[in-house]
Specification:
Its main location: cytoplasm. By secondary structure, the chain is mainly beta. It has helices at about 5-15, 265-280, and strands at about 30-40, 45-50, 55-60, 70-75, 85-90, 95-100, 105-110, 115-125, 130-135, 140, 145-155, 160-170, 175-185, 190-200, 215-225, 235, 245-250, 255-260. It contains two helices and 18 strands.
């Protein structure tokens, strides 16, 4: 039996619910799990020196071309639930080329406790390293309570592409409470410190100055020492009813940040893709 299947059966045994249910009750104290990815460059290609699956995270090597490595994160079961403490640690050593993605959206659900769940992603990239973090969206379901944190540490010559997408509620439902933080350091100095919060009890989160009724939000961060920053902010999206995005340079380094809102997940992805093309070719 795979570690993912064993974990699903273990959690089901704790809750007294079948492992195949879409929304298991979860253990009252929550699940603690840490998955780790370590990529190194051996002089010819990037190798995965560590793939440690844990809890709801099953890590799988994916086929690539050239000297890069690619890892897919497959959810073993519904997570995070209230009270869970989940962590993914990704380290790409000097000159490594690594991409990490997820097989499906991450679904934050209401748990058996009102305590928030935490989902921490820790990314580290060494010198002359290229790291791409491109997961599928995070869905904040009604009644969920999640604290998500990205902590990123980049060497001075590292390159990063990070995409974050959040869907606030499933079809015809209100979102849960979602607090997200993005902390990025480059060469030991702060590059970006950002906090966003959506859903009750956050004041004004759905007002005209924040989302204005949109339910898909996201951002794309591009850091590249070889990128020339010779531009001001750029507004993307012709009709605000279909969503819009702003692409702007960051003061602390050769970096561009796109922030977007849209009524649907597909609209959000289109805006972020447009922002990336603009960042790479303008």
């Amino acid at each position: 039996m795979s570690p993912a299947a064993q974990f699903a059966e273990h959690r089901a045994a704790l809750t007294g619910a079948p492992s195949g249910l879409d929304e298991p009750a979860g253990h009252p104290d929550g699940v603690r799990a840490t998955a780790r990815i370590h990529a190194t460059y051996n002089g010819r290609v990037t190798t995965l020196s560590q793939l440690r699956s844990d809890g709801p995270f099953h890590l799988r090597r994916m086929r690539t071309n050239g000297n890069s490595a690619r890892v897919g994160i497959i959810g073993a079961m519904s997570a995070p639930l209230g009270g869970d403490r989940l962590t993914i640690g990704v380290t790409a050593g000097d000159r490594a080329v690594l991409e990490v993605t997820t097989a499906a959206a991450t679904l934050a659900l209401r748990g058996p406790t009102s305590a928030p769940a935490s989902y921490d992603v820790r990314l580290t990239a060494g010198e002359h390293t290229s790291l791409r973090w491109l997961p599928q969206p995070l869905i904040s379901a009604a009644g969920s309570n999640l604290r998500q944190t990205y902590t990123v540490n980049l060497a001075a010559t590292a390159r990063l592409l990070l995409r974050e997408e959040q869907l606030l509620g499933r079809a015809n439902e209100e979102p849960g409470h979602l607090v997200s933080r993005l902390l990025v350091h480059r060469a030991g100095r702060p590059l970006l410190v950002q906090r966003t919060a959506y859903g009750a009890p956050e004041p004004g989160w759905d007002g005209p100055a924040v989302l204005h009724g949109h339910r898909a939000v996201g951002q794309l961060l591009l850091v590249d020492p070889e990128m020339g920053i010779r531009r001001g902010p750029v507004l993307l999206g012709e009709d605000s009813r279909d969503g819009c995005a702003v692409l702007a340079p960051l003061a602390g380094g050769p970096a561009l940040l796109a922030t977007a809102v849209a009524p649907t997940s597909s609209g959000l992805r289109e805006l972020l893709d447009e922002a990336l093309v603009h960042a790479l070719h303008k």
